[in-house]
Design brief:
Bound molecules: pyridoxal-5'-phosphate
Low-confidence stretches: none
CATH superfamily of the largest domain: Type I PLP-dependent aspartate aminotransferase-like (Major domain)
Strand content: 15-25%
Number of domains: 2
Order of helices and strands: HEEEHHHEHEHEHEHEHEEHHHEEEHEEEH
Structural class: alpha/beta
Strand order of the largest sheet: 4-10-9-8-7-5-6
CATH class of the largest domain: Alpha Beta
Mean pLDDT: 96
Radius of gyration: 22 Å
Shape: globular
Number of helices: 14
Number of strands: 16
Largest sheet: 7 strands, mixed
CATH architecture of the largest domain: 3-Layer(aba) Sandwich
Helix content: 25-40%
């Protein structure tokens, strides 16, 4: 891949046009300072001044096979030359092949694929399918979750970001999912946390009225909200509740799917088969926007002789699907899922735990595969977060200092409130993992200065 010479002048022009005309997601437009990125390859990207960063964010946790994988780039180019686009009502090779490869890997009988443009619309459609399938109005979703930025998805999201939405959408009810480190259930063990979270969920269903609940939507492992791996038995327990009350189980694997957790899907880790499963991001490493819903036989049957009232112009866009076919082939051929599992278990997990032993700012390490979070705290005893939730300006100085130190050591960190997530590409090498851990070590020393 040609690496253009560093050119600060071009960088300045890119930045100026961005500042003048690009309206950025989730941001106060005048309080942000986006880096102008000149290029990217594998686990790295670089700016116009020639500074290179190891990307421990995988973009927004989607470049599961890194940037610019030559086989995927070539597949996109070939598809563009052959058939750049074709409307969703037609059978198109890239689309049917992508659907087949996805269905082969999704758990159980999730064998029909409805393609969307990304994760939020996948969640929107999954919820619509569940409501139509059951004829019931309500949807239960967890606090401390993220399901997307569109109207329904942002209201399902259990995070104050959903409050920005004007009125909320009708029929969304939130519950607490397990999270032992900050337990809402006064639990002291994973077993207690699991049992009490399930009891709480069943009580929620009972008080809402089981016959009014269409679906429970859960991230198999909540990602954006802090990578909380659920206790053994929780998801199986949720599956059981859904079966008991005739509720559709929607597992949102937009972030956790396609290798991220060291399995093709996080549901595989817990041996749970949902009725609907949403995906996006890693399906094609985010090279072209694509998401979707994997649909069980039972729900597909609902729409066998009755039209499904929903669709998208770009559903199963050939360019995006060609990228998915190539990405899935690369993942299979190069053992990317196995690499994520092995590196997570043997290097990243142990490496992060070792950092936690030496750095008082690390309150907890949790995760699996290439999906880890460090909970940074002022005080390990009280678990007071290193910065208050949703801190800005001065109040956020410790996390800002941590982030700046990581970048000074060549690491681009994922930072969300008082946490840093370690979510590098799933085909990371051992050398890259070690480089990233060394930079984190240095950055945590800066965070330590803010502990009590
Ligand atoms: N669901 C989950 C679990 C996610 O992590 C995300 C994005 O981070 C979404 C849905 C929304 O996906 P998108 O941003 O592609 O709409």
């Amino acid at each position: 891949t040609p690496h253009p010479q560093p050119n600060p002048q071009v960088g300045a022009a890119v930045k100026a046009a961005d500042r003048a005309h690009v309206f950025h997601s989730w941001s106060a437009q005048e309080l942000i300072d986006p880096l102008a990125v000149a290029g990217a390859e594998g686990a790295y990207f670089w700016d116009y001044d020639g500074r290179r960063y190891l990307d421990f964010t995988s973009g927004l946790v989607y470049t599961n096979i890194g940037y610019q994988h030559p086989k995927v780039v070539a597949a996109i180019q070939e598809q563009a030359a052959r058939m750049t686009t074709f409307a969703p009502a037609f059978a198109v090779e890239a689309r049917s092949e992508a659907a087949r490869l996805i269905a082969e890997r999704t758990p159980g009988d999730l064998d029909k694929i409805f393609f969307t443009n990304g994760g939020a619309d996948a969640v929107e459609h999954a919820v619509r399918m569940a409501r139509l399938h059951t004829g019931r109005p309500k949807v239960l979703s967890a606090y401390r979750s993220y399901h997307g930025g569109t109207q329904q998805a942002v209201n399902l999201t259990g995070d104050p970001r959903r409050w920005a939405s004007d009125s909320g959408t009708a029929g969304v009810v939130h519950f607490w999912a397990p999270f032992l480190y900050r337990s809402r259930f006064y639990a002291e063990t994973e077993e207690q946390e699991c049992a009490r979270a399930l009891e709480h969920l069943e009580t929620t269903i009972a008080f809402e009225g089981p016959s009014t609940v269409a679906a429970i939507v859960l991230e198999t492992i909540p990602g954006t909200a802090g990578i909380m791996v659920p206790p053994a038995g929780y998801l199986a327990g949720v599956r059981e509740l859904c079966d008991t009350y005739g509720i559709v189980l929607i597992l949102d694997e937009v972030m956790a799917g396609f290798g991220r957790t060291g399995a093709w899907f996080a549901a595989d880790l817990f041996r749970v088969v949902p009725d609907l499963m949403t995906f996006a991001k890693g399906v094609n490493s985010g090279y072209v926007p694509l998401g979707g819903v994997a649909i069980s036989q039972k729900i597909a049957e609902t729409f066998a002789r009755r039209p499904y009232p929903g669709g998208l112009t770009y559903s199963g866009h050939p360019l995006a699907c060609a990228a998915a076919v190539a990405t899935i082939e690369v993942m299979a051929q190069e053992g990317v899922v196995e690499n994520a599992a092995r590196l997570g278990a043997e290097l990243i997990g142990p490496g992060l735990r070792e950092l936690a032993e030496r750095h008082p700012s690390v309150g907890e390490v949790r995760g699996t595969g290439m999906f880890w979070a460090l909970e940074l705290v002022r005080d390990r005893e009280t678990r007071e977060p290193l910065v208050p939730y949703h801190a800005t300006g001065e109040a956020n100085a410790p996390m800002a200092a941590f982030g700046a130190a990581a970048k000074a050591h060549g690491l681009w960190p994922f930072i969300n409130m008082n946490r840093t997530h370690v979510v590098p590409p799933c085909n990371l090498t051992e050398a890259e993992a070690k480089e990233g851990l060394a930079a984190l070590d240095a950055a945590l020393s800066v965070a330590d200065e803010y502990t009590r």
